[in-house]
């Protein structure tokens, strides 16, 4: 079996690769010259924000690394990994151009500043220590790291820019603009490659987290909203679902992998389909007056609710009522005026245009969240969080925004209505947060998954070593730990266990029944 510590290249050699590498090197030098010696600001430049598979963790990619947060409790956002660091090294002596001599260093100009790579994709595997990372400086290179031990397990290179990475306990999927690579996550072997897919410049794809229904979804067309469902376990195409008339903007599986939610670029209608048969289960209307760009869709853990965030200030929460196939009851014909009115209404409904009839049958939002901003890219989720000094958990709506904040809203699962802001956390490693008014001036979201997504250059760095970082809480680990090949194999296998080994679920009633 191939060594995990060795870089495995999917890119073929040739003159074209060398030419692209030279161009990338020149472009990088010109960029460094333009930037000069300016230091990156502390915590500035958020490139990506993603929840993990069960919404128990949040990953933030920045210009100088990445951070991982634990979302186990409501009152506190625990920083469990801080790779977003920089170090200063005194050079000892500096060169004086006027005198042509060396003199002892005394100023900031005589220090060398080293930063971690700018991270545009960070994906954590559930609550394990494995994290997949892609940097802007090496957009074709994927690194799988062990963040507790600050070690790199393996890295892969691909023909074009990596636009998306999805993983569960069985598969790791890398999405390029016109192809998808499916890896076995236990040994990172490439099991299958889906080539010549329709152009997918945003890297839109979804991977089910279920072990029984391990499905991969991606756009089947770039002109209409077709969803291609691929069986990632048996490596074969399953079904093509004609979801919308316009191209797809967002897709998401539920936890069991039996349902998939879709939204088009128009953003007015959200549909839920059965993965097995492709049957339409729900049709939900987000709005009627204006179109919107849907940023994210997310099911609740029990699949009873679905939330959708967009470039507007409103996050919609829909209740997915179970569809029961029952025959309509036989009603005796009423006499008099009421009977005549019932017949008239029933007869007129059959003459309504199909779009109008469909619109009247579409579901409306059960609850809404009003954000203090609009136009900023964000991701939403419905999670159950523990409350302080309480055993029971409460359902909450989470919205993580590219402006560097996490918003926690209440959700009344019985009555719905307007959701109230409960907590607001900063994602730059500092406590506190701005008021509602301060969030209104956030910058406009960029088009695409992250800045520089259209780059098609060779990876700049090929070093297999991991970066240095600091860690918080009980997950703090030794920096620079050297992992052997056996250790890497063991860590990959342990992380893929369901549930992972050495993880005790203290909130699981079956393991720890309440007293």
Task: Report on this structure.
The chain has 515 residues and is mainly beta. It contains four helices and 34 strands. It has a five-stranded mixed beta sheet with strand order 1-13-12-11-10.
Features:
515 residues, globular, 10% helix, five-stranded mixed β-sheet
Secondary structure topology:
Layout: E1 8-9, H1 15-35, E2 46-51, E3 57-62, E4 65-70, E5 78-82, E6 86-90, E7 93-96, E8 101-104, E9 111-115, E10 119-124, E11 130-135, E12 141-146, E13 151-157, E14 164-167, E15 171-175, E16 179-184, E17 189-195, E18 206-207, E19 215-219, E20 225-231, E21 236-244, E22 248-253, E23 259-264, E24 269-274, E25 280-285, E26 294-299, E27 305-310, E28 314-319, H2 336-349, H3 354-361, E29 367-370, E30 378-386, E31 393-401, E32 405-410, E33 417-418, E34 421-426, H4 485-495
Parallel strand pairs: 1-13, 29-33
Antiparallel strand pairs: 2-3, 3-4, 4-5, 6-9, 7-8, 10-11, 11-12, 12-13, 14-15, 15-16, 16-17, 18-19, 19-20, 20-21, 22-23, 23-24, 24-25, 26-27, 27-28, 28-29, 30-31, 31-32, 32-34
């Amino acid at each position: 079996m191939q060594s995990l510590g060795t870089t495995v290249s999917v890119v073929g050699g040739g003159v074209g690769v060398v030419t692209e590498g030279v161009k990338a090197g020149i472009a990088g030098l010109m960029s460094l010259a333009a930037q000069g010696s300016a230091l990156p600001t502390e915590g500035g430049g958020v490139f990506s924000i993603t929840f993990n598979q069960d919404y128990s963790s949040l990953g933030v990619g920045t210009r100088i690394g990445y951070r991982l947060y634990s979302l186990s409790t409501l009152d506190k956002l625990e920083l469990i990994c801080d790779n977003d660091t920089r170090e200063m090294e005194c050079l000892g002596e500096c060169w004086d151009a006027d005198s042509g001599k060396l003199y002892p260093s005394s100023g900031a100009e005589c220090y060398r500043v080293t930063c971690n790579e700018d991270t545009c994709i960070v994906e954590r595997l559930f609550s394990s220590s494995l994290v997949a990372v892609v940097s802007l400086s090496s957009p074709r290179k994927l690194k799988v790291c062990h963040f507790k031990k600050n070690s790199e397990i393996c890295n892969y290179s691909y023909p074009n820019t990596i636009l998306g990475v999805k993983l569960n306990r069985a598969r790791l999927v890398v999405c390029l603009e016109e192809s998808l690579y499916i890896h076995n996550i236990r040994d990172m072997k490439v099991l299958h490659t889906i080539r010549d897919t329709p152009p997918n410049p945003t890297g839109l794809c979804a991977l089910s987290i279920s072990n029984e229904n391990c499905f991969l979804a991606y756009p089947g067309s770039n002109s209409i909203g077709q969803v291609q469902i691929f069986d990632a376990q048996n490596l074969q195409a399953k079904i093509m679902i004609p979801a919308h008339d316009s191209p797809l903007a967002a897709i998401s599986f539920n936890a069991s992998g039996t349902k998939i939610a879709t939204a088009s670029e128009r953003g007015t209608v959200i549909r839920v389909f059965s993965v097995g048969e492709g049957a339409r289960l729900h049709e939900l209307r987000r709005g009627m007056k204006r179109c919107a760009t849907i940023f994210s869709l997310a099911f609740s853990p029990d699949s009873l609710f679905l939330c959708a965030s967009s470039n507007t200030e409103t996050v919609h929460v829909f209740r997915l009522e179970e569809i029961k196939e029952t025959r309509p009851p036989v009603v005796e014909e009423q006499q008099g005026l009421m009977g005549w009115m019932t017949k008239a209404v029933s007869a007129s409904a059959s003459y309504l245009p199909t779009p109008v009839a469909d619109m009247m049958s579409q579901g409306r939002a059960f609850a809404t969240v009003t954000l203090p901003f609009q136009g900023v890219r964000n991701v939403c989720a419905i999670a159950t969080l523990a409350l302080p000094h309480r055993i029971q958990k409460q359902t909450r709506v989470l919205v993580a925004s590219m402006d560097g904040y996490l918003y926690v809203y209440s959700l009344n699962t019985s009555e719905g209505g307007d959701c109230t802001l409960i907590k607001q956390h900063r994602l730059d490693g500092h406590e506190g947060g701005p008021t509602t008014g301060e969030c209104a001036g956030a910058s406009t979201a960029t088009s695409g998954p992250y800045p520089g997504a259209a780059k098609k250059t060779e990876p700049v760095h090929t070093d297999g070593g991991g970066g240095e970082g600091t860690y918080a809480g009980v997950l703090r680990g030794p920096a620079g730990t050297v992992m052997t090949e056996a250790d890497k194999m063991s860590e990959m296998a342990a992380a893929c266990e369901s549930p992972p080994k050495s993880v005790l679920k203290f909130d699981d009633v079956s393991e720890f029944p309440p007293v």
